[in-house]
Amino acid sequence: MYIILNITNSLRFFLLSLILAFNQFPEQDASDIVKKADEKMRGKTSQAELVIITSRANWSRKMDVKTWIKGTDYSMILIQSPIKDKGTVFLKRGKEVWNWIPTLERSIKLPPSMMSQSWMGTDFTNDDLVKESSVVNDYIHTLLSDTLIANKPCFKVQMIPKPETAVVWGKIIVCIDKKDYLELHTKFFDEDGSLINIMNAYDIKEMDGRLIPTRIEMIPIDKKNQKTEIIYKKILFDKLIDDNFFTLSKMKKLN
User: Distance between CA 254 and CA 82 in Å, rounded?
Assistant: First the structure.
């Protein structure tokens, strides 16, 4: 009788320990997971040097690019090569997106309808790179399940556009590493629910004290032997950038 009672008490203690442990680590909110992943790559500010390689069946094209990002409202993208595109700049201020074309000496305001179009002939859209829409603020997030990507336990989160927002994708499913909140695998669907693009992240390295994927590829589903890669050469986080840097006048003077 004593032995049975002792086992029962031990079982109760074990179950109580499980309950306490669960309460200390409650299930995470899907929006919080997406926000942490977004902030991991964005920081308060970031300044990066990138190589973008667009590959097709019979040719490939390389661009050297610099970017400046501040929060979710400001970003600047400068193309440094090839020569014919050198000096081309994209600027985001709030919901406005501008493009400076040095050969025409003209700045163009991009309408929302152009956000779904290819960015500089790559497999990324204008919105993917310039980020007029916000994955944090413009979507409803739902935690679907757990999964494994490259042997890393991940959250699988579904993102559906909020009714009042105009965004490129009808649905996004993203897999985010549970340990470091890295976006490792993403599927992009159109409004009809058809899968359009898959994005994968690789080569996780520490840059400026932060662990990030340093190679990201976008693969269109219906186009054989086609993809675009973004390779991070350098990135600095949380360095001061004044709001006045993100202006039309500054955009025209970058080199």
Answer: 16
